[in-house]
Design the sequence.
């Protein structure tokens, strides 16, 4: 029996989990509300909040799992990518905990963990599968050959899908993060405003042009009618969601057709989006895919996925030393 304490602190959520033999026994997340005031994540505020939250969150994860500190066999932590100051808090905590109890340390890549979140619960995808990993910082189509054998087939050239939601929402005057709010309003609206699809070769993505076209469209419409946004909020949200989901699913379909793979998964914060979840099922039926959508608690940042990845690295004997430092960018 292998019991892993997992720590995630790459952005603005402080999370700890206990994972036993790949099963998540507890998964606790402290969200940082302070960033809403600023309309985005403020790195310095995030690091300070992680520092305040980390010990209570770890204590809660241990308590909720019904284990004690002496049951823990290894410590897994997010090494990156993420905000450097945020990563430093989780990394330092993990190192100190492991050092004090003479436990092995396991470094985890945050994006790899989003993909392996699929192994926290049934149904689990079969290898090889494709995973569209869509978060606030990344948009990738990943070919997953095995737990620890992945290849990025395509990714965004500029903004991530989550950023496209958040920045479009900001233009509509919505709070941060705007992704879940756009999702909520879109349910009552019609996608009747056509926004252009970018033309990006291969399996790449681009979202910066969409943001600019929304900006100019809103400028033009609000010049004629200052209440345009308020009067059309639901339809604007539905239109923005529709174009982002269409861009994502078209590239996913292209990757599936190119590789011949029919096991198709989505992961990351944007995989919580109801339009994307519904779209994947509909497109999947037409294309003959087996589709996999994570439970909500495993979509956005969480330590459960870090612990699941840590478990497979533990089995593979992939440990790291105390000298390891976080990487802020993709590594
Ligand atoms: O994976 P995640 O929690 O953090 C990163 O690793 O970035 O993803 C956060 C992103 C944010 O951009 C947020 O707006 C987006 O996921 N998001 C959503 C929804 N829930 C979270 N976007 C659209 N619809 C949602 N329901
Ligand atoms: Zn993430």
Sequence:
């Amino acid at each position: 029996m292998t019991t892993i304490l997992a720590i995630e602190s790459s952005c603005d959520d402080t999370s700890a989990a206990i994972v036993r033999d790949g099963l998540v026994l507890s998964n606790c997340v402290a969200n940082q509300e302070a960033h809403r005031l600023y309309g985005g994540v403020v790195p310095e505020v995030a690091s300070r909040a992680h520092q305040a939250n980390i010990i209570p969150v770890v204590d809660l994860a241990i308590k909720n799992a019904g284990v004690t500190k002496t049951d823990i066999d290894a410590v897994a932590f997010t090494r990156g990518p993420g905000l450097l100051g945020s990563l430093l808090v989780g990394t330092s905590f993990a190192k100190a905990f492991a050092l004090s109890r003479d436990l092995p340390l396991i470094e985890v890549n945050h994006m790899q963990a989003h993909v392996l979140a699929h192994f926290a619960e049934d149904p689990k995808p079969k290898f090889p599968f494709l995973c569209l990993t869509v978060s606030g910082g990344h948009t990738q189509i990943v070919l997953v050959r095995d737990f620890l054998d992945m290849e990025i087939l395509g990714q965004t050239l500029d903004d991530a899908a989550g950023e496209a939601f958040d920045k479009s929402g900001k233009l509509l005057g919505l709070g941060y993060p705007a992704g879940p709010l756009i999702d909520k309003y879109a349910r009552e609206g019609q996608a009747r405003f056509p926004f252009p699809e970018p033309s990006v070769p291969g399996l790449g993505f681009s979202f910066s042009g969409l943001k600019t076209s929304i900006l100019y469209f809103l400028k033009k419409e609000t010049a004629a009618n200052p209440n345009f946004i308020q009067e059309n909020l639901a339809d604007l949200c539905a239109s923005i969601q529709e174009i982002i989901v269409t861009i994502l699913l078209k590239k996913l379909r292209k990757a599936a057709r190119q590789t011949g793979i029919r096991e198709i998964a989505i992961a990351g914060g944007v995989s919580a989006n109801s339009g994307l979840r519904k779209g994947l099922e509909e497109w999947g039926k037409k294309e003959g895919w087996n589709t996999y959508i994570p439970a909500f608690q495993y979509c956005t940042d969480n330590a459960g996925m870090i612990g699941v990845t840590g478990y497979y690295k533990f089995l593979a004997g992939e440990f790291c030393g105390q000298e390891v430092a976080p990487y802020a960018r993709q590594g």
Summary: The mean pLDDT is 96. The first strand starts at residue 3 and ends at 8. Strands lie at 3-8, 13-20, 23-31, 74-80, 105-109, 129-134, 139-146, 149-155, 263-267, 290-292.
